[in-house]
Write a structure and sequence with these properties.
It comes from Lupinus albus. It holds the Pfam family Aminotran_1_2. By secondary structure, the protein is an alpha/beta fold. It has two domains: 128 residues, Aspartate Aminotransferase, domain 1 (Alpha-Beta Complex); 252 residues, 3-Layer(aba) Sandwich (Aspartate Aminotransferase, domain 2). Helix content is 33%, strand content 13%. It has twelve helices and 15 strands. It is globular and about 60 Å long.
């Protein structure tokens, strides 16, 4: 029996807002009021605030003015909150933002607790640490994820998350570079590029920023771009398994990407935040590809492995072989930025990271990942049974569902309005995401099952 065959259909009721609460006021009750003489009532306008507030003489960063609307996920939160005002009694289920929901395994939290308590003792106290991360953790990251790939401990930079490192890397690259990005892809790549001044203005007719190479990734090309059609970029942001499509690049595809970077003298920023979700033979690191250390660096994170979205801990790998055009090592410039703009990841979170990479911690993380992958199976089976074209889910915690001929935001609104389930509109990840929605598998099991019941009732 399939996982979704035992999902029973339940009716969905939309809660209406209560505009007027019952009043306890009795108009017949007698109330004595002191009598005062009444004069002439004059309507006096309240003093208005000055039409223009005081302004400094500092110009706004013109690059920030190029950004369109709000960042995707705060905009989704805004629409969710507006929906709650309309339906205050609705049970909202959030399968939108990729935020983990299951508790952090105790083998990991106990290590953080131990470190925290040790800070209250003279023997266990520590202040500033190395901006690059504690050596035992850097060593454990290498031995766990990069063994036999030619990566050294000092190639690892421990951070407060991959998203933060993406922005720090943009500071390293500066404004005088051209970026290429998968389309669709994680919006932080494009937005950070805009803020740094790497782009032109937003072109509404094509829904793209000028001076960015959007590498279209659609079902017909296996969600891997046609590299022969792409003009030379300086920086290539590439995420595998991809957020939002869930597609994991094959060894052959990544070999093509590395060769493309070499032919063009480009640098690949490889985002491997979901690598532990890969269940097949697809590479988990770009450094599995020969020659990658000369053209690529890699960002990663504990967020989606150990539930560290709030704890904040990640890392970036920059091999010594990766050089700028003048021969200067990229790692040295990144080290300067890290040392200037960052004081290192929390020593408590690093203790948790070290516990993650113990044998017990790795098993616990794999168990949590297995739980989320079961959620993806439930979601995939649900949309499959409803006749939708469904992608992703196999190697990532995201399901990419196609609604041909429809606006992504319209589908998002329809699902929210009629089922009280939050998803993510595909167009928020780039123009090639139009017509898709992303459904996250991060959720408690009962919520995922209930959301799927509601999907079935809406689209049966």
């Amino acid at each position: 029996m399939s996982i979704t065959q035992n999902l029973t259909a339940t009716s969905i009721s939309s809660s209406s807002s209560v505009f007027f609460a019952p009043s306890t006021f009795n108009s017949r009750s007698q109330v004595s009021l002191p009598v005062k003489s009444v004069g002439i009532l004059k309507c006096v306008a309240a003093p208005q605030e000055a039409e223009t507030a005081y302004k400094t003489k500092v110009s706004r960063n013109e690059n920030i003015t190029k950004l369109q609307a709000g960042y995707l996920f705060p905009e989704i939160a805004r629409r969710k909150n507006a929906h709650l005002l309309k339906f205050p009694d609705a049970k909202i289920i959030s399968l939108g933002i990729g935020d983990t929901t299951e508790p952090i395994p105790e083998v990991i939290t106990s290590a953080m607790a131990k470190k925290s308590y040790a800070l209250s003792t003279l023997e266990g106290y520590s202040g500033y640490g190395a901006e690059q991360g504690e050596k035992p953790l850097r060593s454990a990251i290498v031995s766990t994820y990069y063994k036999d790939l030619g990566i050294d401990d000092d190639d690892i930079f421990v951070s407060d998350g991959a998203k933060c490192d993406i922005s720090r890397l943009q500071v390293v690259f500066g404004s005088n570079v051209k970026m290429a990005v998968q389309d669709p892809s994680y919006p932080a790549y494009v937005d950070s590029s805009v803020i740094m001044g790497q782009t032109g203005f937003y072109q509404k007719d094509v829904q793209k920023f000028a001076n960015i190479e959007y590498m279209k990734c659609k079902p017909e090309n296996g969600f891997f771009p046609d590299l022969s059609s792409i003009s030379r970029p300086d920086i290539i942001f590439f995420c595998s398994p991809n957020n939002p499509t869930g597609a994991a690049a094959t060894r052959e595809q990544l070999t093509q990407l590395v060769q493309f970077a070499k032919d063009n003298g480009s640098i690949i920023v490889y985002d491997s935040a979901y690598a532990m979700y890969i269940s097949g033979d697809n590479p988990r690191s770009i450094f599995e590809i020969p020659g990658a250390k000369e053209v690529a660096l890699e960002t990663a994170s504990f967020s989606k492995y150990a539930g560290f979205t709030g704890v904040r801990l990640g890392w970036t790998v920059i091999p010594k072989q990766l050089l700028f055009s003048d021969g200067f090592p990229v790692a040295k410039d990144f080290n300067r930025i890290v040392s200037t703009c960052f004081n290192g990841a929390s020593n408590i979170s690093q203790a948790g990271g070290l516990a993650c990479l113990s044998p017990e911690g790795l098993k616990a993380m794999r168990d949590v990942i297995g739980f989320y992958k079961e959620n993806t199976d439930i979601i995939v089976e649900t949309f499959d049974s409803l006749g939708f074209k469904v992608y992703g889910g196999e190697n990532a915690p995201y399901v990419w569902v196609y609604f041909p001929g429809r606006s992504s935001w319209d589908v998002f609104g329809e699902i929210l309005e009629k089922t009280h389930v939050v998803t993510t509109p595909g167009s928020g990840f780039g123009p090639a995401g139009e017509g898709f929605i992303r459904v996250s598998a991060f959720g408690h099991r009962e919520n995922v099952l209930e959301a799927c019941r509601r999907f079935k009732q809406l689209y049966k």
